[in-house]
Amino acid sequence: MEPEDLEPLGAMNSSPKTTRPAAPARLAVTDIEVNSYSDFDRVTLTMSGDGEPGWFADYVPSPVHGSTGQPVKVKGAAFLNVSIDGTVFPADVGAEASAPERVNGAGKSSPVAEVVNADTSGGRTQVVIGLNSRAPFSVVTVQDPTRVVIDIAR
């Protein structure tokens, strides 16, 4: 299957989404990628460490850092806040790389304006996806390597 023929993972809608792992995890977000396909954009959060992450994703009117309450500066007109549970700093799991703080969207026609790796604190990592407009989305966890994949409709 060619990349432009890929289908989104999971059912897309604008409702909040969550999953909880069966056992505690110790993971670090080590990479963030944004890729564009014909019908959707994909934000991939790659993780290193052990276990399966839990997560919660929902639209927020104005994103704020979960640990400080200070505003998160992110490009866009709509904001998808993704909280990933079971996380630590990359050095805590022996990872040499840490995820970038900011990643641009996939171009002018992309629904994604910017992704911000906002905070890791108290076992939770916060990632804010700035969108050009509110759109249906899906979130799934995939393995080998462990990734949280957020697909956003065009």
Structure description:
This protein has 154 residues and is an all-beta fold. The protein has one domain: Immunoglobulin-like (Sandwich). 0% of the residues lie in helices and 48% in strands. It is built from no helices and ten strands. A hairpin with a 3-residue loop joins strand 2 (26-36) and strand 3 (40-50). The protein is globular. The two termini are 20 Å apart.
List the helices and strands and how they pair.
Elements: E1 17-19, E2 26-36, E3 40-50, E4 54-60, E5 78-85, E6 102-104, E7 112-121, E8 124-131, E9 137-142, E10 147-153
Antiparallel strand pairs: 1-4, 2-3, 3-10, 4-5, 5-8, 6-7, 7-8, 9-10
Descriptors for this entry?
154 residues, mainly beta, Immunoglobulin-like, four-stranded antiparallel sheet, 10 strands, 48% strand, globular, AMIN domain-containing protein
Shape: globular
Poorly predicted segments: none
Distance between the termini: 20 Å
Summarize the biggest pleated sheet. Answer: 6 strands, antiparallel
Task: Tell me the CATH architecture.
Answer: Sandwich
CATH topology: Immunoglobulin-like
Total of DSSP H or I helical runs spanning 4+ residues: 0
Helical coverage, percent range: under 10%
Q: Got a strand count? A: 10
Radius of gyration: 14 Å
Query: What is the H/E order?
Result: EEEEEEEEEE
Strand order, sheet with most strands: 1-4-5-8-7-6
Pfam family, one: AMIN-like
Protein name: AMIN domain-containing protein
Organism: Corynebacterium meitnerae
InterPro entries: AMIN-like
